[in-house]
Input
Amino acid sequence: MADLSMDARARHPITLPDGQVHSNTVWLKSVIDHPNIEVGDFSYYNDFEAVTDYAARIAPYLFAGAPERLRIGKFCQIANGARFVTSSADHPKRWFTTFPFAVFDNSQMPYFSEAFSVGRDTSIGHDVWIGDGAVILPGVAVGNGAIIGAGGVVARDVPAYAVVAGNPAGTVRMRFDAEVTALLERLAWWDLRLDQIGALMPVLASADASALRAAVVRYRGDGEG
Output
């Protein structure tokens, strides 16, 4: 079996059979330099148009120095048009007006400073697939291995290995039973070295629960979740 060969420092990680580099797909970590965004290795984004600012593309409301952060784990797959609407896009909802007057007239900031200083972090786990045009709303935490259906609007936390879809997005089903989910969380294959992940490929590219149990014993020492 060939070694797993992926360069986490590359900008464009896909080379087509004819030797051309597929410029529409990027490792996000290599193209985003934003103080409020953290991205793990090998998480990619694909867009159908040329992009000059990937941070602005995926998180258009998140400005440097905002009170919130966007964290994306390793090995995530983010499709064209997916967006993270972070807390800086929010408006006060408990007041008599939602209009952000202080944005347009700084003299009104004393009335708005408290509301503007509150930011809820958005957190995306490892090995998460976010479908075309999906929208993740402020403060959401998406668990490892979750799948967000195309066009889904995610307004609440998503359990690990859940499949969610719709507006508002709800759980369609769990990808695996509780035992397998616990084993996958215990294995945490995304934290292994690339050579170890390569050796695990026959297991990862399968649905063999017994092989998964053996992998947990081999790499983590036991099969407990």
Remarks:
- The longest strand covers residues 169-174.
